[in-house]
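Q: Convert this sequence to C-alpha cells.
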Amino acid sequence: MTTLMLVILAVWFVALFLGPPIWLAMALAAWAFLVLSGISDLAVAQRLAKSVDSFPLLAAPLFILMGNIMNSAGITTRIFEFAKVSVGWMRGGLCHANIVASVFFAGTSGSAVADAGGLGTIEIKAMTDEGYSPDIAAAVTASSATIGPIIPPSLPMIIYGVSAEASIGALFLAGVIPGLLMAGALMVMVRAISVRMNLPRHPFPGIGDLWRAFKAAFWALMTPVILFAGLFGGAFTPTEAAAVSVAYALVLGLFIYRDFQWRDLPKIILDTVETTGVVLALVMAAGLMAYCLTVSQVPQLAGGFLTRLTDNPLVYLLIVNVILLVVGCFMEAIAAMLILIPILVPPAMKLGIDPIQFGLIFVLNLMIGTITPPVGVVLFVTAKVAGISFERVTRATLPFLVPLLVVLGAITLWPPLTTWLPRLALAP
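A:
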C-alpha cells in the first residue's frame, strides 16, 4: 500500500501543475488509492463527513462573514485613516500607516487575502495618489497582509487547531506577540527604505486630529478588544467568539456607522458561502487524503525518517522551516497545512516541541509563502489592485521577506515568544 500511495502522490503532484482545483486533484488522488487498494467506497462518504464534523471549524465561515461585513461597512477606511494620522508623520508615513492598519485589520479579518484585497485597495490608492510608486505601495501592502492570519482571529490557526487537535484559544493568544514583532520588523525595513528613497511624510498631527481619527475608528478598533476580553475572561470559546464578532460587525455597519444596508447582506452571505465552500472542499478532500496516508503508513514512514535524521528539537524545527518555505512557494497555505500536518506534527510531539509554538511556526512559514513566487496568492491580489505586473510586485517585495524571516527565526529559537502569553492567560 505504501508504494501505491507514493505513486499516487507523485502523479497528484504533477497534476497540480496542469491547473485543476487543488481540492479536486486531492480528492481524485485519494479516491484512486481507495479503489486500487480495495477499500470500500463507503469510506469516502464517512471520511468526508467526519472531516467537517467539528464544532471549532464552525468558526471559519463566521470569521469570513465578519470580515466581509466589515469590508462593506466602511470600517476599513476608518482603520486606515486612524493609522495614517497616528504614524503618517514618520518618514515614509503611508508605508508605516499601511503596516499599522494591517495590525488593526488583522484583529477583524484573520485573512491575508482579505487584508490585501480589502484594506489594500484603500492603501494602494492613497499611496499612489501621494506620489509613492505602485511597486513600493504593492510591496508594503503584500508584506503587511501576512500579519492578518497571525494576529487573531485567524482562519489558518483554526484549521491547524482542528487538524492537529491543538487549543485554538491558545493558538490565537500565541499569535499576538509574533504579529506585533512582524509589524515592528517591517516598520524598521520601511524606515531604512524611506531614508534611502527620501519618501514623503505628513506633518505631525495635532491632538484634535488624533482625537477625531480615533473617535471615528473607535468602535472598529474595539473588535479585537472584545474578542480578547471574551477569550481571556472565559466568556466564550473561539467558535462563540466568531458568532459574537459577526453580531458586532452587523451592529457597527447598521446602527453606528450606517454605511451598511440590509439589502447588502444577501450578496455578502453569498460571497461568504463561496469562500467557505472552497475552504470546506479543501478540508474534506484533505481529510480523505489524510485517511489514505494513514492507511498506507506514509506519515509513519516520513515521521520515522525525519526523527532518524535528528533527535534535536531545534534541528527538527529548522528542517521543518525549510520544508514549509519550499512548499509555500508552490501550494496554497490551507491545502499545504491539511496535507503536511499529519506528517510533520507527530514527530514534533515525540521530540517534545510545544504544539502551540509548532502551530505558529507552521502558519507563519505558509504566510510567508503567500508572498513568494510562483504561487504567492497575495502577490497576485496586490498586483491586480496596483495595476502592475506580478513580476514587478515580486521584485519589490523581496526585501520585505528579510524581516519576516527574522521573526520566523526568533519564534523558532525562543519558544516563550509564542508560549508565554497563552500560559499566562490560560493558567488555572
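The longest helix spans residues 265-296.
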